[in-house]
Structures are given as C-alpha cells and as structure tokens.
C-alpha cells in the first residue's frame, strides 16, 4: 500500500527537484553561452592568423610553391594559396551564415533537396570543400642506394634456370685445393646450437610450450650449467616469457648467469620471429618492443644480433628496424635458391645491406650473413652435401634417421679421424662460398634440444670431432661451439684484416625454395585473419595512445584514471598482436585449430583495447564517473565472422576520436534505428552538420535488400589531431537529408525514393577532386578523371590450381597455403548477372554491386564529398568453390611499365616483370599499397591488410582477395586451406597527376605523395566511434571537442605509437602475472619519405617542419622529461632532449616521462 500523503510529498519533492535541475541547466547554458562567445572570438583570431600566415607564409614554403608552379605548364591556379582557399577555410571555421548563397553546408543539403544537384551531372556534389595546398618537405629523398649489388638489377642477370648442381642440387660441385688451404688463415668454424620454436603452427602456442618448449628451456639451463663450452642461441621471447612465468627464482638466476656469461645468446629478442611479407612495420616495432621490454625488465640483456631463419622471403625493412634498435649484424635464410647461387658465385653471401633510400650514407648499413643452402636444418648447413651433413645431426642417432640412406654414427676414437675428415671437408667447401674463412654452422632445427639425450649426443660427439679437427694441422681448422655473437666477432676481425663486404640494396621477394615453387600464396592465405590483424593494430595503437595520455593527465592532475587498473589487459592485447606476427600466424600457414586460437586471442585483444579506449575517453572528456552505462565502441568483433556495427538509438551521444597526429575531416557513418535520426552538435548550437540518412544494404539470397531495422546515418566530422568531438543523435521530423536510390533492377524501399537507373548512359559520380564513371550494366568502374581522364577498368578474375608436373625430378607440389601454383592465366568472373544500387546522398555517393556469384562478391565503391579518392570495399565468400583464387584486376591506360609495391607498409620498392619468371613469381606482398605510373600519372591502390599483388601487363594492377586450396603443398602443414570465411578487403584508389621530371631515371624505390600517405594512415587508423547515453544536465561539463595536443604533428611526421612502459612483471604462483605501468611512455615517430611530383593538394591542415619536432610543446599535458632512445627503448640516453630532427624515412623513439 502506498500512503497517499507520502506520494503527494514525493510529487512535490520531485517538482522542486525538477525546478532545481532546470535552474542548474539555465546556469550551465549561460556559462556555455559565454564560452561560446569566447570561442567565436578565438576562432576569429585563429582565422586572422591563418589569413596572415597564408599571405606571408614562411619563405621556404613560398619558394617551394613557386618552384612547383614553375614546373607546371600551364600554371594551375588551385596549386597556390589563394584568397578562395582562405575563404573556404573561413567557412569551415565559422558557423555558416543564414541564407547564404550556394557554397555553405546547409545550402548543399537544401540544394540537394530542392533537386538542384549540380549543373554537370545529377550525381555531382556541390563544391563545398576548401581546396588544400601543395605541401612538400623540402629535403630531397634518394631513389637508390650506392653500392655493389642491386637486387632488381641482379634479377636481370640471374638466369633462373635451375640446373642440377649435383650433391648441392641448387649449386655446383664445390672444390678447393688441399695444399693451398694449409697456407690460408685458419678456417674458423662456429657451430651454433639453436632451436627454432614456432609460437604456433601445427600446435597452438601453448600446445608447443607444454609439449616441447618448456623442456627445451629447462634442458638448456640444466645441460649448459654442466658444460661451460657448450653454447646456445634463442630467439622467441613469447616462449621465453611463458617459461619465465613458471620457473622459480633459482632457475631464473641460473638462466640469467648463462646469458650474462655469453653461453646463451638471445638473438633478435623479439616476441616472435616475425613474418616479413605481411607484417606491418607498426606491428614489427611493437613485437620487438614487447620482447625487448621483457628482456630489459627481467634479465637486463640487450640483443645485438638478428636471426631470421624461417620467414618465407626477407625484407630490408626488418634490417632497418634492427639497425634502429642498435643491432649490428643479421643472419637470414629463406631466399630464392637462384639468388643464393648468384651471390655464392661471387662470394657475396655476406654483404653490407643498405636501405634503398640511403644513397651514399652508411647510417642504415647492416652486416648480413645469408645461409647458402636449402634450409636451416643440419643436413643443409654443415656444407653442400646433405647426405653427409645429415650424418652429423646426432639427434638422428636415436630418432628420425636420415632420408639419404646413410645414418649418423656415434663418434668413437676408432672412427673420429674418418668422420672428422668428412665433416672438415664439408666445412671447407662451405668456406669457399664466403670471403673470409670464417663460417657459421647452425646446429639445430624445429623444436630441437627438447631432451637431455639430444643435448648430450650433440655435445659429446661434436666435442670429439672438434678435438680431432683442431689438432690435425693439415686441416688448418679451428672449430668450436659458439653463439651468433661469437661468429660475428670473428667475422668482423677478418673483415678488418682481409676483405670488406660488398654493399647490397634491395629485397628478397618472392621466395622459391625449389623448381618454380614460389611462395606467393601466403601473401593472401587466410585473408580474414590478415584483416583482423590490422583491426587489432588499429585498436591497440589507439588504446596505447589513450592509456598513455590519460595516465599522464592523472599523474599531473592527481585525479585517478580508473582505466589504469586495466593495464594487464593492455599487455595481453599487445602480446596477442605480437604473437600473430609470427611467420605461421599472419602468413595464414597454421593448422585450422591454431588459426582459431590466434583469432580468439586477437578478439580478446580487441575487446581489451575497446575497454581501455572507452575508459580513457570518458576520463579525458571528463564524463561524470557515476553514469550507469559507459561509452562503447560502435562495432562488435567475432572470431568467425566480420565485425558488425552496433545500432545507436536516438538520444545517444557519439564521441569520435581521431588517433592520427594531424586533424582530419571525414565522413563518419553510424547505424541507427530510425530513418528520422539526425546528428547535431551538443548544446544549443544551431550549426548544421552536413549529413545524410540512407539504407543499410545487404545481399541476401542473391538479392540486394535494405535492412528493415537499421539505417545508415553519415555526417561530415572535423576532428583535431589526437582529438575528440562530441555529437548528439536525435529524432527529427525534418528528414530532409534522405538519400535517393537508383537501382539496376527492381528494388523496393519503404523509406527512400527509388527509381530504375537510366541505362542509356554510364553512371558518373564526381566531386571537386575526382570524377569516376561506372558501367551502367555491371556497376563496375570504367574511368577515373582527375586533371585528365584515365581508363581504369575494374574486373574480377580467378585462378585454378595446376596439376602435378611430372617433369620435376624432386616431385611437384600443388598449390596450398604457402605456394601459388596457378593453372595458367586468370579467367574473368562474368559480371553479366551483376545488379547494383546507386545511392545518391549529399555527402556520400555509393555504388553497391552484387557481383559474380562464384565468389558471392559484394563490391562497394564510395565517393565522399571531400574525398580525393574512391573507397572500395569487397566482400568475398568462396566457400562453395574448389581450388579457387579470386583477384580484383584494374586495367588502365597507363602506358609505361612502372610498378611499385610496398614492404611492410614502410617503403615502396620498384618491381619489374621478367619473361624468364613464371606468373606466380610476379606476385609480391602488398601489406600496404602498390602503384603504377607513367611520366605524368600515378594510380595508387592503398590497402588496409596484407594481400598478394601483381602487375601482369603494363598498366595493370591486380590484388588477390582470397584463396581456397583443397590440398597440402608439401611444406609441412599437411592440410589445405578450406576454412575460408566471408572476408572483407578495403582500398583507396587514388589517381594523381605528376609534374616535372622524375628525379632518377631508374629508381629502385618510390615514395607516396603526402595525400597518399595520409589516405593510407586514414585507412589503417580510422576514427574511433564511441556511443553512449548521457545525462543532459551533466553534458555541459563535457567539452564539445578537445585535443590532447597543443599542436598537430608536422604533415610528414607520423606518431607510430605512444606506448606506456611496463614495470617489471610480478610473477605469482601458477604462472600468474601482474604488471604495472611506469610513469613513462615511448613515443615512436616516423618521418615519411615523400614524392613531391604529385600535383595533388593536401587537404589536411598541417605544416611541414623539415623534420624538426619539439616534443615538450607538443602535448597539452607537459612532459617532465624527454630522453632520446633507440627504437625499442633498450638504450635511453642520459641527456635530456626536447627537439628532434628526423630525416626522411627515419624511425625514431623518445622516452617521455611525466
Ligand atoms: Zn618457423
């Protein structure tokens, strides 16, 4: 029973409370009004400054613009800062005036609604976006490296003929003069015991640890403590850390002593031995920091040598990352057998590896040792003859045996002379391939040394062999166990005494291990997870940045950041992404259940990051801490299906975060539950946001349909560098911003005007930057026009798998996870049954195509009102196919044959087509992008995940989207690739006009223009969209927009990461871990290398600084100290620094404490 007087009292109380609330609100509004006035004054000041700056811009830049203009004939007015540009800037900064003529944002919507859709075409946007400016850093970039061997040029010379070389199948009969060797300097032989441990392949990471790795590392401590002259090297810190978490302090101390004494060497010290084809340089730097931080915190060891023996093709980006991490030497293995032979013939298997952009400079030089033979196992490392070397793998005494028919023998006083001679002969032959009579002989294989028997057998037998060889003067050999460090120390001594190494530039893709077995399949295999990899990358980078800055603010303000308690989750996320960089992870070459395990770890990582992003956003935006429902990222992620947008309800608040170092203006789309939804700015602002509402389109049962329960609300947002902006979603009766639909076949929509498309002319969409035409029958792209028109015919093609080639003596393989072995040229997928819907909105135009059914293809092309490029999304599902590989092909009218693809999304390397190489050899990794160009046009395809790319004819680019292979390809995986899922790929397609002469007529490296760089960054690091509910009264406390930066980064400097450093982890019972953050972060910067021939204007509002950046004045929260550091923070300078100077392409880290 409710007492009526009590309920009356309650009602009165509630009324009073409401009145109080309203009073509060009025007070807030008054404050806000005052603030708004101040803001307008500030903006006006900013505008005046901008005008002044535009007029009297710094002389360097003006000169540069003038130079650019001189190169242009006829001069192009939009290339210079003009009053028009300033006016347009004014429109962006100031709220639009009422009833202004055409040109402001409200007007665009009104024009659109009134049917005034632009004069040139029904599909044109009104020209509302300001023009940008031609900016280019003044420092020149190099287009080649000085040196002795250039790999692209070497490809012209190498015959790729694969003759039978005898016992060394892929080489020749190696000989030496037995008398002459007695006069030579002693042959130094360094036998390096190693265990190659894959953090996931046939078993999961944890599976391998339980079954093998923990026994290997236990045995290492036990055996090496007993035998001080035995050595061991180890690379994978993921395993080492897991082991470390489970052992006691006594074992830890023993392990530390072995490392301190040099008996055990940690090589590279990354979290994994990263893949080099598909990995993005962000992830490589992060997995290196992850491993190095563990080493520094727990062991105090700093690796100086790099070891990359299993990745399937070798990238110079890795050599650079190691160099910047203060490493001096590298050992690499999986390189095309013909390249190895070519280098061996000139004794150039050891070389000084120079980066392609280095020119004459030696600052990037890395001394590199390349393995000469087929593999890193014992049969292929002691010398050229596997049948003999196999007999010196003493694990094979008790298990596996030798496939060449001759088993190993236990070394005894009776046979040591004969066996020692045999082995010395192999060593001596191997030395003939190198310059300095020092050889590296690895002694190990996958998951070796997992039993004490193996440790004992290898040790005892080799000891006897070494003693024999070293005491036999005629052999003139000094052999011993050693580490990689021991080897390179000896080599350096000999180099200084005898023969310096040749300088080499270029890369080692595409790898073939035998015959025409090119490993270009794994550039694309399991694209669903390659896509997920970049999603993790994006969320992790954002979470790390926001965690650092929130923690930073908490330190300065004393107001606790509750997200700090989530640091362990952040560490877990970093490690999940790092683990996947393994060369059977992101490569797509693990067993099905291992792939799922990686996927689960990555989804956990994404969810951990989202939690941190939400917490940090609330903290930094000053959201009241007591609200019931926090902010949530508007996207859900799954292990086995593509991400889904969360539906936002009316009344929601939307917070958008820009994780880039420069401001951006972008179309943001969210899913809403009402076709009446609109987006507005917080408060009572009457500033109109340019927006549109349209259907969410899908293909169901081979038909395009509109989702009945959700709609897509898109709006143009402008967000500051590392900045937030807040918006409100509300329902309005005025639904003036609806899109119009034109369909190729019958299509019904309850909410949007729908008509059949006029099939008499092609579809044209355009804005002030770009015009694109699409085939009216298929909906596929036909031409692009920027300054002039280019044919860009987009189509989809497929390959099958070829049958066994019986002529191969080694036995042929079929296409699988690693190998791309097509059954001839690609066949087109017919587009005659395509249907499409053209969505015409005021800020985004979309062509949504239901493509070929074989691939259940959905192809979506967007052109946004302010975009300089087309945004392409493909969804493919090839689960109904057998031995089927599907590619997107662009055939253009670009005549000249200049094709560049990227390495690790870090640099663009020149590729050439060689008639002597098969089709599968023309495929290269495309972890980031590719472009083709002639003297005045460049077409760039910028991707956001690793896929394979080729240019099979002049003017063509094709990119593989998915592959399904029904069989194993004999590289150990023992299964096909049949776990395909509906998979998404995204690209920007950018056409640029080039001006002026190419600075180098035979470049070996290319550079993106600044607009292309910024597009690539936008694709990789999209705006984070957070949605939640908010108490209206509280909302006035929350800023409408804010930035964590006092000033944006220069246009050509990208903050790769701002990553909080960890205190040493506390390991508890049962392998539990607790890690606390330090009050310092590593900030990793990259100065982009920029092509200045592009006439494309940069729309981003940023400045160039010639590589100079001041760290302390960069942030709103001022750091206490800034210290210069090596890339992975292993070496931090004692001296404080503030400003940095970066050269083009340079990667640099500073340690920031607060
Ligand atoms: Zn491996």
Automatic annotation (TrEMBL):
<dbReference type="InterPro" id="IPR028995">
    <property type="entry name" value="Glyco_hydro_57/38_cen_sf"/>
</dbReference>
<dbReference type="Pfam" id="PF09261">
    <property type="entry name" value="Alpha-mann_mid"/>
</dbReference>
<dbReference type="GO" id="GO:0004572">
    <property type="term" value="F:mannosyl-oligosaccharide 1,3-1,6-alpha-mannosidase activity"/>
</dbReference>
<dbReference type="InterPro" id="IPR011682">
    <property type="entry name" value="Glyco_hydro_38_C"/>
</dbReference>
<keyword id="KW-0479">Metal-binding</keyword>
<comment type="similarity">
    <text>Belongs to the glycosyl hydrolase 38 family.</text>
</comment>
<dbReference type="InterPro" id="IPR013780">
    <property type="entry name" value="Glyco_hydro_b"/>
</dbReference>
<keyword id="KW-0378">Hydrolase</keyword>
<feature type="domain" description="Glycoside hydrolase family 38 central">
    <location>
        <begin position="517"/>
        <end position="602"/>
    </location>
</feature>
<dbReference type="InterPro" id="IPR000602">
    <property type="entry name" value="Glyco_hydro_38_N"/>
</dbReference>
<dbReference type="GO" id="GO:0046872">
    <property type="term" value="F:metal ion binding"/>
</dbReference>
<keyword id="KW-0175">Coiled coil</keyword>
<keyword id="KW-0862">Zinc</keyword>
<dbReference type="InterPro" id="IPR037094">
    <property type="entry name" value="Glyco_hydro_38_cen_sf"/>
</dbReference>
<protein>
    <recommendedName>
        <fullName>Alpha-mannosidase</fullName>
        <ecNumber>3.2.1.-</ecNumber>
    </recommendedName>
</protein>
<dbReference type="InterPro" id="IPR011330">
    <property type="entry name" value="Glyco_hydro/deAcase_b/a-brl"/>
</dbReference>
<feature type="region of interest" description="Disordered">
    <location>
        <begin position="68"/>
        <end position="103"/>
    </location>
</feature>
<dbReference type="InterPro" id="IPR011013">
    <property type="entry name" value="Gal_mutarotase_sf_dom"/>
</dbReference>
<dbReference type="Pfam" id="PF07748">
    <property type="entry name" value="Glyco_hydro_38C"/>
</dbReference>
<dbReference type="GO" id="GO:0030246">
    <property type="term" value="F:carbohydrate binding"/>
</dbReference>
<dbReference type="InterPro" id="IPR027291">
    <property type="entry name" value="Glyco_hydro_38_N_sf"/>
</dbReference>
<feature type="coiled-coil region">
    <location>
        <begin position="12"/>
        <end position="39"/>
    </location>
</feature>
<dbReference type="InterPro" id="IPR050843">
    <property type="entry name" value="Glycosyl_Hydrlase_38"/>
</dbReference>
<dbReference type="GO" id="GO:0006013">
    <property type="term" value="P:mannose metabolic process"/>
</dbReference>
<comment type="function">
    <text>Catalyzes the first committed step in the biosynthesis of complex N-glycans. It controls conversion of high mannose to complex N-glycans; the final hydrolytic step in the N-glycan maturation pathway.</text>
</comment>
<dbReference type="Pfam" id="PF01074">
    <property type="entry name" value="Glyco_hydro_38N"/>
</dbReference>
<keyword id="KW-0326">Glycosidase</keyword>
<dbReference type="InterPro" id="IPR015341">
    <property type="entry name" value="Glyco_hydro_38_cen"/>
</dbReference>
<dbReference type="GO" id="GO:0006491">
    <property type="term" value="P:N-glycan processing"/>
</dbReference>
<keyword id="KW-1015">Disulfide bond</keyword>
<dbReference type="GO" id="GO:0000139">
    <property type="term" value="C:Golgi membrane"/>
</dbReference>
């Amino acid at each position: 029973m409710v007492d009526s007087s009590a309920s009356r009292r309650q009602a009165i109380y509630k009324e009073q409370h409401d009145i109080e609330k309203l009073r509060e609100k009025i007070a807030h509004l008054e404050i806000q009004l005052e603030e708004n006035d101040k803001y307008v004054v500030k903006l006006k000041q900013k505008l005046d400054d901008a005008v002044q700056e535009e007029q009297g811009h710094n002389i360097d830049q003006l000169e540069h613009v003038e130079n650019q203009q001189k190169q242009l004939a006829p001069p192009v007015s939009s290339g210079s800062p003009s009053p028009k540009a300033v006016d347009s800037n004014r429109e962006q900064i100031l709220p639009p005036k009422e009833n202004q003529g055409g040109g402001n944002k409200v007007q665009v919507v009104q024009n659109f609604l009134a049917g005034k859709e632009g004069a040139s075409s029904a599909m044109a946007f009104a020209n509302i976006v300001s023009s940008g400016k031609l900016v280019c850093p003044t420092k020149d970039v190099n287009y080649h490296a000085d040196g002795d061997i250039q790999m692209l040029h070497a490809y012209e010379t190498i015959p790729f003929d694969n003759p039978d070389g005898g016992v060394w199948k892929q080489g020749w009969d190696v000989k030496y003069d037995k008398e002459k060797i007695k006069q030579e300097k002693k042959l130094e032989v360094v036998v390096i015991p190693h265990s190659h441990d894959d953090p996931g392949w046939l078993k999961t990471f944890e599976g391998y640890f339980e079954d093998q790795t923990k026994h290997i590392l236990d045995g290492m401590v036990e055996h090496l403590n007993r035998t001080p002259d035995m050595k061991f090297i180890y690379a994978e810190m993921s395993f080492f850390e897991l082991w470390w978490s489970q052992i006691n302090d006594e074992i830890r101390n023993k392990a530390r002593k072995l490392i301190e004494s040099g008996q055990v060497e940690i090589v590279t010290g990354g979290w994994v031995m990263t893949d080099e084809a598909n990995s993005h340089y962000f992830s490589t730097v992060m997995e290196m920091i992850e491993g190095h931080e563990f080493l520094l915190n727990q062991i105090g060891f700093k690796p100086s040598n790099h070891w990359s023996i299993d990745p399937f093709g070798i990238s110079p980006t890795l050599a650079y990352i190691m160099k910047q991490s203060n490493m001096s030497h590298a050992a690499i293995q999986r390189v095309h057998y013909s390249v190895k032979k070519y280098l061996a013939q000139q004794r150039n298997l050891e070389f000084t590896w120079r980066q392609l952009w280095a020119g004459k400079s030696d600052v990037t030089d890395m001394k590199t040792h390349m393995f000469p033979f087929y593999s890193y196992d014992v049969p292929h490392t002691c010398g050229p003859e596997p049948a003999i070397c196999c007999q010196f793998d003493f694990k094979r005494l008790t298990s596996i045996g030798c496939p060449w028919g001759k088993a190993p023998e236990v070394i005894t006083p009776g046979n040591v002379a004969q066996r020692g001679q045999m082995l010395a002969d192999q060593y001596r032959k191997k030395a003939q391939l190198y310059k300095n009579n020092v050889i590296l002989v690895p002694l190990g294989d996958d998951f070796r040394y997992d039993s004490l028997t193996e440790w004992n057998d290898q040790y005892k037998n080799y000891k006897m062999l070494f003693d024999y060889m070293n005491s036999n003067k005629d052999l003139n050999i000094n052999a011993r166990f050693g580490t990689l460090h021991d080897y390179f120390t000896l080599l350096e001594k000999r180099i200084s005494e005898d023969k310096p190494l040749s300088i080499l530039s270029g890369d080692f893709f595409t790898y073939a291990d035998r015959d025409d077995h090119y490993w270009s399949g794994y550039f694309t295999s399991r694209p669903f997870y390659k896509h997920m990899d970049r999603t993790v990358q994006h969320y992790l980078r954002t979470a790390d940045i926001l965690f650092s800055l929130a923690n930073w603010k908490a330190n300065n303000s004393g107001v606790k950041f509750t997200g700090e308690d989530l640091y362990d989750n952040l560490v877990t996320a970093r490690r999940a992404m790092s683990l996947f960089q393994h060369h059977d992870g992101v490569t797509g070459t693990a067993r099905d259940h291992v792939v799922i395990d990686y996927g689960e770890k990555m989804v956990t990582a994404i969810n951990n990051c989202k939690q941190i992003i939400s917490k940090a956003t609330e903290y930094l935006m000053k959201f009241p801490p007591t609200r019931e429902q926090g902010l949530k990222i508007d996207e859900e992620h799954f292990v086995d299906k593509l991400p889904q947008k969360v539906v936002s309800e009316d009344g929601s608040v939307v917070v958008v975060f820009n994780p880039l170092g420069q401001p951006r203006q972008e179309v943001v789309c969210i899913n809403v539950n009402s076709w009446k939804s609109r987006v507005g700015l917080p408060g009572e602002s009457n500033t109109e946001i340019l927006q549109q509402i349209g259907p969410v389109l899908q293909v169901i049962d081979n038909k395009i349909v509109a989702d009945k329960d959700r709609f897509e609300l898109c709006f143009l947002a402008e967000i500051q560098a590392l900045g937030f902006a807040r918006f409100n979603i509300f329902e309005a009766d005025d639904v003036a911003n609806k899109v119009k639909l034109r369909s190729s076949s019958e299509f019904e929509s309850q909410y949007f005007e729908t008509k059949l498309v006029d099939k008499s002319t092609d579809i044209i969409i355009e804005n002030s930057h770009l015009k694109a035409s699409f085939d009216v029958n298929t909906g596929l792209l036909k031409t692009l026009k920027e300054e002039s028109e280019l044919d860009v015919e987009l189509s989809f093609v497929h390959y099958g798998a070829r049958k066994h080639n019986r002529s191969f003596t080694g036995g042929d393989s079929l296409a699988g996870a690693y190998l791309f072995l097509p059954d001839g040229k690609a066949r087109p997928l017919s587009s005659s049954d395509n249907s499409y819907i053209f969505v015409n909105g005021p800020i985004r135009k979309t062509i949504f195509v239901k493509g070929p059914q074989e691939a259940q293809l959905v192809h979506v092309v967007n052109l946004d009102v302010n975009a300089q490029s087309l945004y392409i999304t493909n969804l493919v599902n090839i689960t109904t196919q057998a031995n089927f590989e599907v590619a997107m092909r662009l055939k253009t009218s670009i005549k000249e044959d200049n094709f560049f693809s990227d390495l690790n999304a870090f640099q663009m390397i020149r590729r050439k087509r060689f008639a002597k190489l098969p089709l599968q050899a023309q495929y290269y990794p495309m972890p980031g992008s590719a472009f083709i160009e002639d003297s005045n046009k460049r077409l760039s395809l910028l991707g956001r995940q690793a896929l394979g790319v080729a240019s099979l004819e002049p003017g063509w680019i094709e990119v593989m989207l998915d592959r399904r292979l029904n069989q194993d390809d004999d590289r150990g995986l023992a299964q096909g690739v049949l776990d395909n899922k509906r998979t998404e790929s995204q690209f920007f397609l950018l056409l640029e006009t080039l001006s002026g002469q190419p600075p180098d007529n035979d470049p070996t490296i290319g550079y993106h223009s600044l607009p292309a760089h910024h597009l690539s960054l936008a694709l990789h690091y999209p705006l984070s969209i957070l949605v939640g509910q908010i108490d209206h009264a509280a909302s006035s406390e929350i800023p409408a927009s804010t930035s964590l930066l006092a000033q944006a980064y220069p246009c050509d400097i990208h903050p790769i990461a701002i990553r909080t450093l960890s205190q040493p982890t506390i390991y508890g019972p049962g392998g539990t871990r607790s890690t606390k953050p330090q009050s310092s972060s590593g900030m990793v910067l990259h100065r982009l290398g920029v092509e200045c021939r592009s006439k494309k204007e940069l729309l981003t509002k940023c400045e160039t600084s010639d590589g100079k950046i001041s760290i302390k004045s960069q942030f709103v929260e001022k750091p206490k100290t800034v210290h210069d550091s090596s890339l992975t923070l292993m070496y931090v300078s004692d001296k404080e620094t503030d400003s940095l100077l970066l050269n083009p392409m340079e990667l640099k880290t500073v340690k920031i404490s607060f």
